[in-house]
Specification:
This protein has helices at 7-26, 30-38, 41-52, 97-101, 114-134, 173-191, 226-242, 250-258, and strands at 58-65, 69-75, 81-87, 142-146, 149-153, 193-194, 203-206, 209-212, 219-220. With 260 residues, the chain is of the alpha+beta class. The protein has two domains: 7-153, 2-Layer Sandwich (Phosphorylase Kinase, domain 1), CATH 3.30.200; 165-258, Transferase(Phosphotransferase) domain 1 (Transferase(Phosphotransferase), domain 1). The strands form three sheets. Strands 1-2-3-5-4 form a five-stranded antiparallel β-sheet, with helices on both faces. A two-stranded antiparallel ribbon has the order 6-9. The longest helix has 21 residues, at 114-134. Bound molecules: adenosine-5'-diphosphate (ADP) and magnesium ion (MG). Magnesium ion is lined by residues 201-202, 214.
Length: 260
């Protein structure tokens, strides 16, 4: 896999070979388009920058191909696993993104063209990971952010990324629900953030421990969308856990969370 010792051209050839090997392994020609897009010249240069800065050493394999971007597992030269999220700059539907960026004083003055929005979105995810981490909410530890690429702690084992909460058998749903609700409360009161897309899809299970991911859309509590998103987050949690026999009172939770 690409190691950085012979400049960009060598790097480019190696990463192309690796991407080809994923295609063969996965026997999935639909992926070709995705990889051609992710590993276009601009992104290769950005990834190369992360390599030459010593942030990552190799990109190992794709973990997820989503609407807005792709997540890969990477390795540092010290052998530490990382997750690398590369936001799509071309085909993604970013119509909704603007409303999450506008109204955030941290990104005042960003003009709403697609490229700027995506760069701001990545920076926002990175900064939100910091804020959540500081408030002792379990999210992937942020490592680096460069343009449309966010590098963070990898959640999972050597052999496989951590499963989503929706795909695991829950030993103790009540304890898990309480942990998540506590994270939402701490997020609101200490980080002053609302996740905004909290669901069983954006919680990974690190063994028994939930890890909240996908925080690009998270907004400050003063954001005009914050209260609406908070209600939606808690409603999602209540809906999911009602399938596991728990009766979460959304109104009561909201009162607890807003009590400061
Ligand atoms: N830090 C991480 N460690 C391990 N897997 C991750 C990590 N971040 C994301 N993933 C995987 O990638 C998928 C997509 O990531 P996510 O941030 O939810 O982006 P999106 O939903 O916008 O595509 C997740 O469902 C998860 O399987
Ligand atoms: Mg997600």
């Amino acid at each position: 896999m690409p190691r950085i010792d012979d400049g960009f051209r060598g790097f480019e050839r190696r990463i192309e070979r690796e991407v080809d090997s994923w295609r063969v392994r996965r026997k999935d020609s639909d992926d070709k388009k995705t990889y051609d897009e992710v590993f276009d010249k601009k992104n290769l240069l950005r990834i190369y920058k992360l390599f030459s800065d010593g942030v990552i050493d190799t990109i190992e394999f794709p973990i997820s191909t989503g609407k807005e971007g792709n997540v890969f597992r990477a390795l540092t030269s010290g052998g530490v696993f990382l997750a690398v999220k590369i936001y799509r700059t071309s085909t993604a539907t970013f119509r909704d993104m603007a409303k999450y960026i506008q109204g955030d004083p941290r990104f005042k003055g960003i003009s709403a063209n697609r490229r700027n929005l995506i760069m701001a979105w990545s920076a926002k995810e990175f900064r939100n990971l910091h804020r959540f981490t500081e408030a002792k909410i379990r999210v992937p530890r942020p490592v680096a952010c460069h343009e449309n690429i966010v590098v963070m702690e990898y959640i999972g084992t050597e052999t496989s990324p951590a499963p989503m909460m929706k795909n695991v058998v829950l030993d103790d749903p009540e304890h898990l629900a309480n942990t998540l609700l506590e994270y939402v409360r701490r997020g609101y009161q200490d980080a002053e953030l609302v996740h905004g897309d909290l669901s069983e899809y954006n919680v990974l299970m690190d063994g028994e421990d939930p890890v909240i991911i996908d925080v690009g859309q998270s907004v400050l509590i003063k954001h005009p969308l914050a209260e609406e998103l908070l209600v939606r987050d808690i409603t999602n949690v209540a809906r999911f856990f009602s399938k596991h026999g728990l009766d979460i009172d959304v109104e009561q939770q909201l009162r607890e969370i807003r009590k400061r």
